[in-house]
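Reopening this ticket.

The earlier resolution said the output was attached, but the attachment link was broken on my side. Pasting everything inline this time so it's all in one place.
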Amino acid sequence: MSGQSGGLISTIGPERLYRIIQEGQSVELIDVRTPGEYHSGHAALARCEPLDSLDPARIVAESPPGQPIYLICRSGARSEKACAAFAAAGFGDRVVSVEGGTLAWDKAALPMVRGRYLLPLDRQVRIAVGVLVLIGAVLGYLVNPWFYALSAYCGAGLVFAGVTDICLMGWIIARMPWNQTKGPQSTCCS
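Inline output:
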């Protein structure tokens, strides 16, 4: 393991993790992004366990005893949240966050499984909030000043998300049909 992030979360670089895999060690690599993001492209050995439905106790029970569980997301932020969830469930010593996430894995030219492209969740949230702010401003100017409240509500939501690291818009968008998968592929994230 490469180190500690903030002194609490163990981390590892993607190249180091891949060397461990190349040495023949069995590795449990879990991608905590939405199913849609996962299927748009993921590290070759990763399996999908979305952060919003993560069950640390089940994952630990299904993993070989004592083996580290590596968590990966897009850039590292959600895998750190997943590590915190494992720690809160009493399994913090079993999990390791992959530094830089899938972006760093791909940049290092490590094996990827690619599917149809899907905008990352954070970009989807920015687009949705931007559209709502614009609609509120235009309707407030053209129809009724009360529509400005929509823009104010979006601003308050952004402040809340920034302070608490809880994003209701992200939670809603993650459950949209385009962020889910259908058919046999969806079983990896059930």
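Reporter confirms the inline version is readable. DSSP finds eight helices and eight strands in the chain. The longest strand covers residues 9-12.
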